[in-house]
Amino acid sequence: MPNTAKRSEVLLHISKIDRAIRLVIGDNGQGFDPSETHLRDGRTRGQGLVGMRERVELSGGSFAIESSIGKGTVIRASWPASPQRGIAATKSEARNPKSETN
Hints:
Blueprint: H1 3-6, E1 10-17, E2 20-27, H2 47-58, E3 62-67, E4 73-80, H3 87-95
Antiparallel strand pairs: 1-2, 2-4, 3-4
């Protein structure tokens, strides 16, 4: 098997654009047909992808897979970015939690 058949490139990109945190993972592997991730008996293949989608969506994000046979795969995830808060503010709140008065 030639070396080119063994090689695969992987792209990992994390960015904060506008008010979102975005993650892109891509490869130049053999790819797959995303519509065929379910087996005929209803079970799913690729539990790793299912788990990734669940974790992203449970944490308030969105998840997408783009793939086609022979052309690799790109996975995109994004989450709303919350305003940055400094560590000092967090520590201060932990020491002095707001108390409700009636």
